[in-house]
Amino acid sequence: DQQVKQNSPSLSVQEGRISILNCDYTNSMFDYFLWYKKYPAEGPTFLISISSIKDKNEDGRFTVFLNKSAKHLSLHIVPSQPGDSAVYFCAASARNQFYFGTGTSLTVIP
Amino acid sequence: EPEVTQTPSHQVTQMGQEVILRCVPISNHLYFYWYRQILGQKVEFLVSFYNNEISEKSEIFDDQFSVERPDGSNFTLKIRSTKLEDSAMYFCASTERRAYVEAFFGQGTRLTVV
To answer: Which of A28, B58, B70, B80 is 20 to 30 A from A72, alpha carbon to alpha carbon?
Structure first.
C-alpha cells in the first residue's frame, strides 16, 4: 500500500532553472511532510519540512508547497545547481513512523 | 553536529546466519527507527521504538527480526536467520520527539546475504 507516491522516477533540469519535484499522498492523517536528499551509498539527509497547518515553507533555494485538498506537495529548487543532483525522497509522518515515496532522481545539467 | 552512526558499514553473511546491525542514535533523541532500502526500490519502514518497546512495526518486520536497546546508547537490529531477500541497505534513524520533527538518518549498513 503506497501511501506516498512520487510518480516521476527521474528529472533533468538545466543549471540555473527551476526544479520541481512532486509528491502525492493518500492518508489524510499525515500531519507533517518532509523532503530528504540522498546520495548513493549514504543515508537520507533532511532537506526541508512543512506542517499540515501551513501551505508553504521556504529555506533558501528550497521551497515546499503543500496542497492539502489535493493531497499533494512539491519541492521547488531555484536556481538549480549541479550539486543538487541526487535522489529526492518525499516523506510523510503520522504517529510513530515516516512513510517514504520511491524517490525522484534529479540531474542538474551544467 | 550530532549524528547517527551505524556499524558496520558493510556486512556479508551466509544465508541462515544471524546478523546484528548496530546504531548509535543522537544522544538526546527518544524515538528510534529502522528502515531498509533494497537496491533500486523504495525506502521501507521496518520498526519504530520508544521507551524500550516497539511502537510500530511493518509487515516486513516478522519474527525473524528483533530490536533492542541494550544500553543507554546503542540500538540494534537483529535478523535471526538471514534470507537472500534480506540483502539491502539498512538505515537507522532517530528523532527528538514523535511529531513535527525530522528524522536524522545514519549512513546505513549494506547487508549482503550470500
So the answer is: B58
